[in-house]
Design a protein that fits this description.
Blueprint: E1 5-9, H1 14-23, E2 28-33, H2 36-48, E3 53-57, H3 63-70, E4 75-80, H4 95-123, E5 126-131, H5 144-164, E6 169-176, H6 195-206, E7 216-219
Parallel strand pairs: 1-2, 1-4, 2-3, 4-5, 5-6, 6-7
Helix pairs in contact: 1-6, 3-4, 4-5
Bound molecules: NADP nicotinamide-adenine-dinucleotide phosphate (NAP).
NADP nicotinamide-adenine-dinucleotide phosphate binds next to helix 1.
Length: 228
């Protein structure tokens, strides 16, 4: 029998890839990203382990493409994970960098969620998980746009949760601290969370009784480097 479907955006690497692998035991995965080769490698790994993965090569900042590829996918779970971050002083941030962050981290939440949510509402069950960030509730120099998009993502998630929980749809946000992925440019990543740590948190948030919602989770490392 087919398993329920989990759509994971940003599945080509990092937290999204680890999440797709972690969920593949319980769900048929729809893996979304732009990088075709990485998606094919993920699908092959999931198939080797006995699971199912359907790669969808998609730029989530293209609303028409999102509508064409994802409308009607009867997903039980949507992990809105794809994100980009250009962390630099405001006066060095170009308009293109600003717009890209807003488009990927925030505007795409509209298109991807609008494509997937109707089937959840019709079925009266489903779970949308957003990968936020601890920068969605704090500030740091260089984060004018990135932190703002993550604040917005958290607000989006909480408002949507209040709108759709009566209809049987859960909405959660998982806010990681620093994670050792392609996203981070720091040379020493040994102290950071792994992508698998965050994937495990996402899986646990999803694996709750039908009447229980874990809405917000913060995941932090215990191995922060000592300040010199
Ligand atoms: N790493 C951290 O320290 C950290 C901490 C807190 C929160 N986060 C959040 O965690 C999420 C995942 O980040 P990560 O660390 O795993 O970063 P990553 O390794 O750079 O992965 C980012 C993913 O997003 C996808 N993506 C980017 N632009 C896209 C687009 N236009 N259309 C479709 N997919 C797109 C990328 O795929 P393609 O390039 O193949 O399209 C890739 O799969 C992000 O939302 C990030 O803000 C990360």
């Amino acid at each position: 029998m087919a398993k329920p479907i989990a759509v994971v955006t940003g599945a080509s690497r990092g937290i999204g890839r680890a999440t797709a692998l972690r969920l593949a035991g319980d769900f048929d995965i729809v893996a979304v990203a732009r990088s075709e080769d990485e998606l094919a490698a993920l699908a092959a790994e999931i198939h080797r382990a006995g699971g199912t993965c359907h790669p969808v090569r998609l730029d989530i900042t293209d609303p028409d493409a999102v509508t064409a590829e994802l409308t009607g996918v009867d997903a039980q779970v949507l992990v809105n994970n794809a994100g980009v971050g250009t962390l630099k002083p405001f006066m060095e941030l170009t308009r293109a960098e600003w717009t890209r962050m807003v488009d990927v981290n925030f505007n795409a939440l509209y298109d991807v969620t609008r494509a997937i949510l109707p089937a959840m509402l019709a079925r009266k069950s489903g779970h949308i998980v957003v990968t936020g960030s601890i920068s969605g509730r704090s500030a740091f120099p260089g984060g004018t746009c990135y932190a703002a998009t993550k604040h917005a993502a958290i607000a989006f998630t909480e408002c949507l949760m209040l709108e759709v929980r009566d209809a049987g749809v859960k909405v959660s946000v998982v806010n990681p601290g620093s994670v050792a992925t392609h996203f981070s440019e720091r040379s020493d990543a040994s102290w950071m969370l792994s992508a698998e740590d965050v994937a495990e948190a996402i899986a646990r948030v999803i694996d709750t009784p039908p009447t229980v919602l874990i809405h917000s989770v913060e995941v932090r490392t215990l191995t922060v480097p000592k300040k010199k």
